[in-house]
Model the fold of this input.
Amino acid sequence: MLNVEQKLEVLQSYPQLQRKNVSLGRVNFHYEESAYEKKIVALHIHPNGNGYIYAGLLPNYETDAKGFVNIRDYSEADLRTLLDETIKAMSTNSSAVEAKEPEQAKAAPALATTSTGGGTWINEDGHSLTLKYEDDMWYVYSGVNLDMAFETRSEAGEYLKDEGFKPQAQA
Done:
């Protein structure tokens, strides 16, 4: 098992990953060149050595509901293999992925309004809500007031659609 310093050293050896310090001494790593809405590769790398790597696009890993694998007991070789496979999978958007995740793959094009999937949503009465991705969460705002918060883009999109809102057409 690697300690947190060793895990961070491995993650920082990937120049395509960007380190983001988050709360409680934890660290995330983002892959900004991802072909998917998902940008987080490493989630909550904790000072105690715990952490998660995104493997939601990989067929040979058992993941949690959000597509992450716990790497607490990973060796350096296992961690590098997982990172290599994840980055490769996130680099291209293929039809093989659509077969693995049909609901998300079908919903994403209809719901995306910008490259980050956020934007302005309008209902029939002309009222608008703004969807933003911040701090690993999707937030729905009514003006400056927070209306709702969601863990996934699809949950936020479902909520907005259920409330009668549609993405505003881009100019």
User: Anything to note?
Assistant: Confidence is low (pLDDT under 50) at residues 95-116. The beta strands are 18-21, 27-30, 40-45, 52-54, 68-70, 119-122, 128-134, 137-142, 145-150, 166-167. The radius of gyration is 17 Å. The first strand starts at residue 18 and ends at 21.
